[in-house]
Amino acid sequence: MRDTTTEPSPTGDAAEAVLTIRDLRTFFQTDGHVVKAVDGVSFSVRRGETLGVVGESGSGKSVACLSALRLVPSPPAFHPSGEIRFQGRDLLRLPEPEIEALRGNRLAMIFQDPMTSLNPYLRVARQLTEVLEVHQGATPAAARREAIAMLERVGIPDAGRRIDQYPHQFSGGMRQRVMIAMALLCQPEVLLADEPTTALDVTVQAQILELIAELQASLGTAVVLVTHDLGVVAGTADRVVVMYAGRIVEEGPTGELFANPQHPYTRGLLASMPRIDTPPTGHLEAIAGLPPDLGHLPTGCAFHPRCPLASDRCRHEEPPVVAISATHRAACFEVEAGG
Amino acid sequence: MSALPPTELSPLLEVRDLAVRYRLERPGGLLSRGHDELRAVDGVNLVVRRGETLGLVGESGCGKSTTGRAVLQLLKPSTGTVVFDGQPIHDWWVRKGRRWVWDARLRDLRRRMQMIFQDPFASLNPRMTVEAILTEPLRNFGLAAGSDRRRRVQELMATVGMDPRFIRRYPHEFSGGQRQRIGIARALALGPDLIVADEPISALDVSIQAQILNLLARLREELGLTMIFIAHDLAAVRHISDRIAVMYLGRIVEEADAGEIVAAPRHPYTQALISAVPVPDPVQEATRQRTVLSGEVPSPVNPPSGCPFHTRCPLREDRCTRDVPVLREIAPGHRVACHLVE
Among A84, B85, B135, B141, which one is least packed by beta carbons within 10 Å? Predict the structure, then answer.
């Protein structure tokens, strides 16, 4: 959400927040256009909390996380602007060796496809012990012991033998567990999980989400869970941020946001989903139109071409961020302030 | 009832003991040579009535897509029968050298059976305009020549909710949802009776999925289509299907009316599958009972003895490891393959 004030976000108490992102902008240069993938995003996450970041493809949810770890290559991206506060420092202004020391150690990330973070040429043992040896100076024997213990903890049977296998010898669900083990070995303060269960079957998804929740509870990790699935968010997140076209359109505690969604996009998403818990309606209330082209964003509110409530003002002016309650905000002209 | 001709009473599709097996050569030296057998589909029985939509759900590797392809004879079933509109189409193959190919009857039957694919990026030829893509099936069957052909293509575009002026464009100029509409238009070009839609919405964004589900529901009504809707997303399958069959490791483990199977699932696997589907409601998510299965789907190369689900089943008994449960009717229209269901 575009925060024009310098006040800390009302939901992310600055004293408690482990990671605070303020006014983050990540732009790309392509074919002569500037693509505003992330355009003024602010959010924070507290110790032990799960923040759900929801959006469709192109909403900027993944790029926001990658930018937080400075993993977006530049070029084609411009250096992100804004501020990412972690342990009293601004990650966007840290020299590369210092951010490298944090990445995979204090700040870890897991991806939709485990093969993007596992090296297919190296045995799992080598990949797991490396983080401990490099970041924490563990001896090889101690690192191996710890790695096996973590593999057991994430539910890999026969971990003592399987640690010497290569990634391709694991199934999709097991590989995801290896990646989670790798991410959590150094007991990071923050875990950024980008669609961690999207490629998995629902029964395996349930296992992985339960595993993340258990480990989070025992380690106090702050989790940023990026997903397109509102069902996953409803079951796991304490707070939710909804993104559209590079911006936050709504933010609030999970219960409040689902019970009382305010932004027409959030409402549209919820109404368009077929649900297993209610009788089918016959016709789904689909959101009209197509997601926007980030290189040619509509003027005013980026959602206006698809919005059933769009007025003339929405076509020309950017909507303000309206506080619905102390913890719930939406960026829309039609939303009434409250709280 | 007796006034109807017999073909109106018979189901459009009847599948009996369908199996698709693949031979996997074992790597190794001369002496250890041999092969394994992968049972992708292992004895499937299905009946699809005219105008009905049957949902086929299951997790990756359960054989649901292979079943769809074998039904349409896009691959040759290893054993079993597929009867389409009273005709045994599984026999309509001829040997050509070392390969099996469709005979003339099966080629002609393509007009009546079509498929919609998951990935609209991979299933449309990037070098062909939309007009060429939609004209190809018409030309193959010698339908609608000259200006009629152009008119038919424009009509198809309108049917799937696309601007008919876009027919000169190429697939890359469209979004994922629009490409899926083109894939649907292509499947409809020949006026089929049966559509097999294989994960038609899983590659699409959430806000676009509803558009495509609505489109399929409307076309089904308007054109009287019979449909097999294959997907892993149980909520979407329930939304569009009259009946649902749940597959596990190449077999159907439960089949019932769509509402009933979700409200009162009987097979332990169906129960776990439904309990694992996330619901966009935090209050429910916090309170609902969830059966989290341990382990993963076993390999179809070495399927477990007895019930294929016994390795993960919370209710397993001794006989489950020995005897294969048969799919039997426990209530009208509700079939379950489990020893423990009365």
Answer: B141
pTM: 0.89
Residues of chain A positioned with their CB less than 8 A from the CB of B290: 206
| A201 closest CB neighbour out of B232, B238, B258 | B232
pLDDT value of position B70 = 97
Task: List, edge to edge, every strand of the sheet that includes A321-323.
Answer: A107-110, A190-194, A222-227, A50-54, A239-244, A247-253, A329-331, A321-323
Contact partners, residue B287, CB within 8 Å, separation at least 6: none
Q: What is the ipTM of this complex?
A: 0.86
The CATH architecture to which A3-106+186-255 belongs is 3-Layer(aba) Sandwich (3.40)
Q: Does B279 sit within 8 Å of A276, measured CB to CB? A: yes
Which DSSP helix (H) or strand (E) runs through B93?
Answer: strand B93-96
The 8-class DSSP code of residue A290 comes to -
Nearest CA among A213, A214, A72, A217 for reference residue A225: A213
Element (H, E) at A162: helix A159-162
Measured between CA atoms, the residue of chain B closest to residue A266 is B207
Model confidence pLDDT, tens digit, residues A190-238: 999 999 888 788 888 888 898 889 889 988 999 999 999 999 999 999 9
CB pairs under 8 A between A and B: 134
- Within 8 A by CB and 6+ apart from A6, the residues are none
Which segments of chain B does DSSP mark as H helices, in order?
A: 6-9, 64-71, 104-109, 130-140, 146-159, 176-188, 206-223, 234-240, 258-263, 268-276, 282-287, 318-322
Amino acid at residue number A259: A
Q: What is the pLDDT of residues B257-308, one digit of tens each?
A: 999 999 999 999 999 999 999 999 999 998 888 888 887 788 888 889 999 9
3-state secondary structure of B237: helix
Q: In this structure, which long-range contacts are made by residues B134-137, counting pairs with CB atoms below 8 Å and at least 24 apart in sequence?
A: B134/B167, B134/B182, B134/B185, B134/B186, B134/B189, B136/B186, B137/B186, B137/B189, B137/B190
Please give the DSSP secondary-structure letter assigned to residue A113.
S
Q: Is the pLDDT of residue B3 over 70?
A: no
Closest partner residue to A276 (CB to CB) among B206, B232, B274 is B274
* Contact yes or no for B283 and A276 at CB 8 A: no
Token pair listed for B250: 């190449």
**Residue B48: burial class (beta carbons within 10 Å; 0-12, 13-18, 19+):** buried
Mutation site for A-interface testing, chosen from B60, B179, B239, B309 by largest number of A Cβ within 10 Å: B239
Q: Between the CA atoms of B150, B153, B158 and B160, what dihedral angle is there, to the nearest 10 degrees?
A: -170
> Scanning every residue of chain B, which has its alpha carbon at the shortest distance from the alpha carbon of A275?
B235
The pLDDT tens digits of the residues spanning B34-72 come to 788 899 999 999 999 999 999 999 988 899 999 999 999
Q: What is the pLDDT of residues B192-249, one digit of tens each?
A: 999 999 999 988 888 899 999 999 999 999 999 999 999 999 999 999 999 999 999 9
